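Entry 12.
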Amino acid sequence: MYKNIEKIFLLSDAQKGILYQHLAGADDIYTEIVCLKLSKCPDQEQLRLAWQKVVDNNQILRSYVQWERLSSPILVMMRHKTVSIELNQGSEDIDRVIQKERDKGIQIDQEALRLVLYSSEIEDTYMLMISHHIFLDGWSTGVVLNEWYRALQGEDIYKALDYDSYLQYLKDKDTSNCEEFWSQQLKNYSGVMHLPKERSLDNCRQLSKPVSDSLRSALSRAVERYGVTLSTLIQAVWAAFLSEYNESFVDFGLVSSGRQCGSRDFNQVAGLFINVYPFHLSVDRSLSVSEWVQQVNEVQVASLGNADMPFSAIKSKIGQNIREFNTLLVVENYPVNLQGLQDVELIRVSEDTHYDLVLQFHLYDHWQIKMLSNQTSKVDLSCSMQRFFELLHEFACCEPTIKFSSLCDSQNVLMKVYMPFDSEYIRQAIFRWVEGMGHNFTVSCADIRLLGGQEDIPEKAVSHIFVGLEYMLGGMLDLPRNARVFSAFVNRLEEYLRDRTDWTVFLYSLQGLYIYGIDKELERVLNEYYCQIEQMVVSYPQVNFLRLIDLPIFSKGREFFDFVAYQQANMPFQKEIFYDLAVLVCRQSWAAFYNEFKLLVLDCDNTLWKGICAEDGWSGIQVTREHAAF
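Predicted 3D structure (tokens):
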């Protein structure tokens, strides 16, 4: 076996990242299947020999990955690999066959390619090419299939370079300049973007839509008008789409072909060349549309020059705390294109993703946009696709001098929460709720003593103010000082409300929930200022006032109070109470901005009346004394 080993290389950084996902149980995401329909029943040996030529011509197809009992994973390239084709027959639908093969997957520690020839009972014959993304990218899949078809026609296939030359190039490349660039470029980088969420449980995970000829022509004219490439214009539109759900920055991954390696031409070499690098942009809504496109272009040009450094290497060099982006943009992914090949029809390319949202813009004879999401993200693909097409059309047809903000309406809502005690519990609970909400909120929690001050005031914001004067006491016996504190707070609160007439404000009074004994004179002062606050907010129609003591969660007497937590961590209530308050805050915020309604259907048979409508009819229904009392 060892005599058959041609070369051994360490995995590239991109391959290491895929291997990590594979070992973490996400292998089926990277299993890729191309299904071809063969119009003529092929000679099986001729078919196998054609594939043998392809495997002999490509090192990566003769390779496998080893990682067990090794300090670093390696790619083992064999001198020779005998091709075999699995022969299957049956009556199953081809989609079902593809799913079975996806479930079966591929053993990357044994092979890089698996071939299946499936004959159905209706005399259709399909060729399935099963590979793994750790070996082949989308461009390489097209290279392999075109070589196979040429070999099937009896043509000679040969290439001067192979994948080992690329791995050697990566090994010798100096990335010190890249490290310096990314350490500066990724300041204020977040990575994880808010996205439009689908609340239903049956949301689709893939959606495709063709680009019309009229939009295609408009985009071509827009490229000339803005003086940028089509790829840059698409990036500008994608960044604009994300900016509607993210206030200050947009972050997403961009795919580079990875084949621009100095003077060497790797365009016809099969392997994993693509690299994903981060795109980070500050959102400035005061720009014109043209200025926005130019800003994207500047960032793209600078980032592309340092795109050879994979994101995993960026993390290891400049900080492990950098999170991976959850959205990906793929432009010119060179999908499998077999147009012009006789007797072969591309049926399906089966692919998946671990990102929350992927946009693929395929540029070939028929332009097409495809969106994918993972199993857990619950992204609303229908809404996302519709909005992206709207922005694409607006960028293509609008005047470049108009304001960017006139095209992109921010969907993000700032949620400010002010509390008179430690807000850690309620902050954690709010974040958990916001993650599952179908709309996007940026949450900020602060001490109520910091109410107001200098801050940017966005168009969409909701403020939740928990007023607890008892928790501001400087000392029980220092009545004059406490009165000054209360008076200053009331003035600051009124100034806050006066400056934010466009906000929605919820003010919650904690009066009556403080269980420690208070001097009668101090209690009188507290009641006076609580009453003053309650009278003041009447003058501000944007304020919704609520006394928490009237809520059912505080109806159990003193059980809600946590003496130990209050003394040690300034958290007076039990955790369950903070969770209930977080639910209240989130529901109030939701209701303030989104007109969504719930339909409650009650089955009242044998509950409000005696009898069953469907079986007894209206005449058989009786309302007894007991039912009337209920």
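Annotation: The mean pLDDT is 83. The longest strand covers residues 31-38.
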